C-alpha cells in the first residue's frame, strides 16, 4: 500500500462524510452493495493484497475545480507527472486557459483538466483491446498500457484529451485517479500540490468546505452529454460575453445571456485567404488510414460488383468472370488489400500485437471493423485460390462469405468515425463518401485492369462508367449536405469547415473541380465512346479527387478538446517544434513519432554487414519502437 508520510498535511486527506444518493445526471453514486461480488476485493496495487478502509470506497469520486482560485502555476501538472514518472511530452493533467477583454479589463480563466472518470466512458467502449476498466472502487476508469496496442482510438473518442498516446513508446496511458493514494485516505497528487486551493477531490456532488457552486460547465469545457464526466466547477467571477482560445484552434466561446452557458463558435482569426498547406495535408499522421480506407472500400466495392453482377446475370460483369484474365484481376485486388492492411497494421504503436484488435467485439466498432475486414480478406484470398484451382463449390462458399463480410467491414468502418467528440466526422456524409468511393473506385479498378489486359470492349467500359457515375453522385450529394449543415451550425464542426476553406482552401477547391470533372467524364462515357486512354484519364481524376478528399477528412477534424495554452497542447507550437528541430529538446515537451520511423536502407546495410543475432536485435528494436542508428 501507499506509504503515508508522518508529516502529511491535513488538506491532503479525503474529507467526505455524508454523501448524496444520486448525481446530477440521475445515476447512483454508490456503485456496489454489500452483497455484490465486487465488494471487498483488492485493487492489487503494486501486487499488494490490502483493501483500503475508506468508507466511501465504492462511491463515485470526482475532481472539483474552483476556477476562481486557479492561478495557472502548473503545480498540479508537475505533481502528476512526477507521481507517474511521465516523460516531458506526456502529461495526464494539463492547464489551459481562455481569455477575454482587453487591457486594462483583460481577464483570464484557467482550467486544470485530467481524466474525468466518466459515468459513460466512451474510451472503454471504443478501445478494441479492452485495455480500459471502470472499477466500482471510487468509480475510477483505469487503463492498462501493457494491453494497449497503440491504435489511439480512445484519444479520438474522448472529449477531454485524457488518454495520451505516447509517440515514442507507441502506447496510451492516462490519469489513474491516484487510486493507491485513495486507498490510504489521501487525495490525488495533483490536488495535494495545488497552490491556490483550486483543485479538490471527493465523492461527486459533494461541495468542499467554503465553496458554494457545483456546476458541470464553465467556458472552454467541452459538452458533457457525451460521457457525463465526474468533475464539478465553481466560477463566480463575472466573465466577458466572449472568451477566446490562445491556441491554434479557430474557436471562441460566446455566452448565452438567457442560460448563462458558453457555446463554441468559429473564430475567424486566420482570415479568409485560401492557402495550400499540401505538405501538412499529404504527410498527415493518418496517411496510413487514408490508404487503408480507400483501398479497402475499393476492393470491397469491386468484389461485390463482380459477384452480384455475375449472380444477377449482368452481361458486362458476367463477361469479366468468363474472361481468362479474371484470376489476374482477383490477384491484383488481393495484393492491394494486403498492402492496405499492412499500412494500417504498421500504423499501430505495437503492430506485433495486432491480434488484440478482436478483443472488444461486444462494444468497439474498431474491433467489428477489424473482424469484418479480416473475414473479407480471408474470403477474397480463398475465392482467389479456388478460382485459380477451378473448384467451383469452394469458390462459391468464399464468394458468399466475401459478399457478407465486406459490406459489414465497411459499415463498421463508417460507424467508428461517427464520433460525437469529432463533429466534422459525425455526419451521415461519412457513410455516403465511403459508399460512393466503394462503388466508384471499385468500378474504376475493374475497368482499368480488364481494359489494360485487352479483353474488354468499349461497351463494357460504358457499363462500368455507369457505376462510376452513380458512386461519384452519391459521394457528391453527401458533400453538398455536409457543407450545408456545417455552415448553419457553430462549434468544432463549423471550425473544421472554416479551415477547409482557408488553411486547405486550394486543395479543397481542386478536389471539388476534380470530382465534378470525373462526374462529367463518367456521364459522357456512359453514352459516348470510351478508349483505354480515356479510362486512364478518368482513373487519374477519380483517384486524385478521392485521395485529396480523404486526406482532408483526417487533417481537418477538430475535436471537442480543452483549450491548449501550454506548449505541448498547442498544435501550432507542436508543428513549429517538429519543423525546426526544437522538438529534439526534451524540455520542450514535443516528441516525434519515433515508433514509426526507421530507415529501410540502413536495415538492409545492417543485414549485409552483421551476424544473424545482431539482425534479430535490430528487428526487435523496430518492434519496440526504437530508431535504428
Number of domains as seen in the coordinates: 3
Share of residues in strands: 5-15%
Contiguous uncertain segments of 5+ residues: 597-601, 623-629
- Profile the largest sheet: 5 strands, antiparallel
Arithmetic mean of pLDDT: 91
- Gap between N and C termini, in Å? 42 Å
- Total helical elements: 19
Protein described:
The protein has about 625 residues and is α+β, with helices and mostly antiparallel strands. It folds into 3 domains: about 10-240, 2-Layer Sandwich (Alpha-Beta Plaits), CATH 3.30.70; about 285-495 and about 510-545, Formate dehydrogenase/DMSO reductase fold, CATH 1.20.1630; about 600-629, no CATH class. The chain is about 45% helix and about 10% strand. It contains 19 helices and 12 strands. The chain has helices at about 75-85, 120-125, 155, 180, 190-195, 280, 285-310, 315-320, 325-345, 365-390, 390-415, 430-450, 460-485, 490-500, 505-525, 530-555, 570-580, 600-610, 610-625, and strands at about 60-65, 95-100, 105-115, 130-135, 140-145, 165, 170-175, 200-205, 230-235, 240-245, 250-255, 260-265. Strands 3-2-10-11-12 form a 5-stranded antiparallel β-sheet. The protein has a 3-stranded mixed β-sheet with strand order 8-1-9. The chain starts with about 60 loop residues before the first strand and ends in a 6-residue tail after the last helix. The model is unreliable at about 595-600 and about 625-629 (pLDDT under 50).
What is this entry, summarized?
This protein is of the alpha+beta class and 629 residues long. 45% of the residues lie in helices and 9% in strands.
Amino acid at each position: 500500500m501507499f506509504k503515508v508520510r508522518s508529516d502529511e498535511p491535513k488538506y491532503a486527506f479525503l474529507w467526505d462524510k455524508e454523501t448524496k444518493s444520486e448525481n446530477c445526471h440521475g445515476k447512483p453514486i454508490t456503485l456496489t452493495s454489500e452483497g455484490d461480488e465486487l465488494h471487498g476485493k483488492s485493487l492489487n496495487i503494486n501486487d499488494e493484497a490490502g483493501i483500503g478502509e475508506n468508507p466511501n470506497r465504492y462511491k463515485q469520486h470526482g475532481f472539483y475545480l474552483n476556477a476562481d482560485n486557479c492561478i495557472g502555476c502548473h503545480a498540479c501538472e508537475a505533481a502528476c507527472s512526477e507521481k507517474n514518472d511521465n516523460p516531458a511530452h506526456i502529461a495526464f493533467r494539463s492547464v489551459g486557459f481562455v481569455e477575454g477583454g482587453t487591457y486594462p479589463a483583460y481577464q483570464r480563466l484557467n482550467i486544470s483538466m485530467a481524466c474525468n472518470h466518466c459515468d459513460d466512458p466512451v474510451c472503454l467502449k471504443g478501445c478494441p483491446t479492452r485495455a480500459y476498466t471502470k472499477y466500482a472502487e471510487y468509480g475510477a476508469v483505469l487503463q492498462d498500457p501493457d494491453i494497449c496496442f497503440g491504435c489511439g482510438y480512445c484519444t479520438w473518442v474522448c472529449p477531454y484529451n485524457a488518454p495520451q498516446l505516447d509517440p515514442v513508446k507507441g502506447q496510451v496511458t492516462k490519469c489513474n485517479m491516484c487510486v493507491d493514494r485513495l486507498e490510504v485516505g489521501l487525495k490525488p497528487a495533483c490536488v495535494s500540490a495545488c497552490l491556490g486551493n483550486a483543485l479538490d477531490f471527493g465523492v461527486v456532488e459533494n461541495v468542499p468546505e467554503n465553496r458554494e457552486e457545483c456546476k458541470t460547465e464553465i467556458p472552454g469545457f467541452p459538452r458533457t452529454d457525451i460521457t457525463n464526466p465526474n468533475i464539478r466547477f465553481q466560477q463566480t467571477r463575472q466573465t466577458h460575453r466572449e472568451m477566446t482560445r490562445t491556441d491554434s484552434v479557430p474557436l471562441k466561446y460566446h455566452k448565452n445571456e438567457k442560460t448563462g452557458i458558453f457555446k463554441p463558435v468559429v473564430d475567424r482569426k486566420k482570415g479568409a485567404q485560401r492557402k495550400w498547406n499540401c505538405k501538412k495535408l499529404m504527410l498527415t499522421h493518418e496517411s496510413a488510414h487514408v490508404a487503408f480506407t480507400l483501398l479497402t472500400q475499393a476492393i470491397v466495392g469491386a468484389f461485390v460488383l463482380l459477384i452480384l453482377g455475375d449472380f444477377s446475370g449482368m452481361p458486362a460483369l458476367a463477361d469479366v468472370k468468363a474472361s481468362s484474365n479474371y484470376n489476374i484481376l482477383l490477384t491484383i485486388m488481393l495484393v492491394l488489400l494486403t498492402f492496405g492492411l499492412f499500412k494500417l497494421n504498421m500504423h499501430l504503436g505495437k503492430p506485433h500485437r495486432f491480434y488484440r484488435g478482436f478483443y472488444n467485439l461486444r462494444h468497439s466498432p474498431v474491433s467489428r471493423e477489424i473482424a469484418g475486414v479480416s473475414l473479407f480478406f480471408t474470403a477474397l484470398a480463398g475465392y482467389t485460390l479456388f478460382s485459380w484451382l477451378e473448384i467451383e463449390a469452394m469458390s462459391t462458399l468464399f464468394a458468399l462469405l466475401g459478399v457478407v463480410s465486406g459490406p459489414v467491414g465497411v459499415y463498421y468502418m463508417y460507424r467508428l468515425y461517427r464520433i460525437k467528440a469529432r463533429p466534422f466526422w459525425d455526419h451521415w456524409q461519412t457513410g455516403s463518401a465511403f459508399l460512393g468511393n466503394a462503388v466508384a473506385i471499385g468500378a474504376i479498378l475493374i475497368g482499368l485492369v480488364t481494359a489494360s489486359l485487352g479483353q474488354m470492349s468499349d461497351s463494357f467500359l460504358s457499363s462500368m462508367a455507369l457505376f462510376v457515375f452513380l458512386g461519384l453522385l452519391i459521394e457528391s450529394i453527401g458533400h453538398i449536405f455536409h457543407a450545408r449543415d456545417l455552415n448553419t451550425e457553430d462549434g468544432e464542426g463549423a471550425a473544421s469547415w472554416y479551415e477547409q476553406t482557408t488553411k486547405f482552401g486550394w486543395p479543397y477547391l481542386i478536389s471539388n473541380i476534380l470530382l465534378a470533372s470525373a462526374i462529367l467524364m463518367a456521364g459522357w462515357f456512359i453514352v459516348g465512346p470510351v478508349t483505354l486512354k480515356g479510362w486512364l484519364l478518368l482513373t487519374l481524376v477519380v483517384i486524385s479527387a478521392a485521395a485529396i478528399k480523404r486526406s482532408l477528412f483526417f487533417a481537418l477534424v477538430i475535436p471537442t478538446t480543452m483549450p491548449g495554452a501550454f506548449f505541448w497542447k498547442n498544435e501550432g507550437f507542436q508543428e513549429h517544434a517538429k519543423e525546426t528541430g526544437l522538438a529534439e529538446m526534451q524540455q520542450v515537451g514535443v516528441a516525434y513519432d519515433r515508433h514509426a520511423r526507421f530507415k529501410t536502407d540502413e536495415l538492409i546495410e545492417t543485414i549485409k554487414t552483421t551476424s544473424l543475432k545482431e539482425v534479430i536485435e535490430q528487428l526487435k528494436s523496430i518492434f519496440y519502437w526504437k530508431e535504428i542508428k
